[in-house]
Amino acid sequence: MNIRKAQLSELSRIEEIYAYAREQMKKTGNPDQWGNSKPERETLVNDIEASISYVLEEEGEIHGVFVFFVGEEPDYKVIDDGEWKNELPYGVIHRVAGDGSKKGIFGSIVKYCSAVISNLRMDTHQDNRIMQHVLEKNGFERCGIVYVEGGNRRIAYQKV
Fold this sequence. Notes:
Elements: E1 2-5, H1 11-27, H2 41-49, E2 53-58, E3 61-70, E4 91-98, H3 105-116, E5 120-124, H4 129-137, E6 141-148, E7 152-159
Parallel strand pairs: 4-5
Antiparallel strand pairs: 1-2, 2-3, 3-4, 5-7, 6-7
């Protein structure tokens, strides 16, 4: 699967993938993380314009989307019930979603991001058992609790 930066012309397909992901999250016991509308269109546009939104494609068809950047994530400055594995520069992965048609999307994302920087951080909702499993399967370790979006708790992970 090829990974490249997302383009504004692909916004409709990206929104379809996030809509599918929201439905899957609801079906698997995680209705609150993205609710009915997250990530919002404005967020997606901002991510694309900031060149931090990526798509996974195969034979011209987009099957996944995620955000990746190297730099500080303000929500990661404070961590409770644990600590980060190190304080070295790190990459951040956010808003991972797939269309359900391909397996191994997250593994491809981790491989791509690790080639840019080997120190990676991510967070997920306590009810997102699937993402917790996939994170741990791909070498991420649970580090503690961070707070996002006005104080919402998220489980923090890091892979070194």
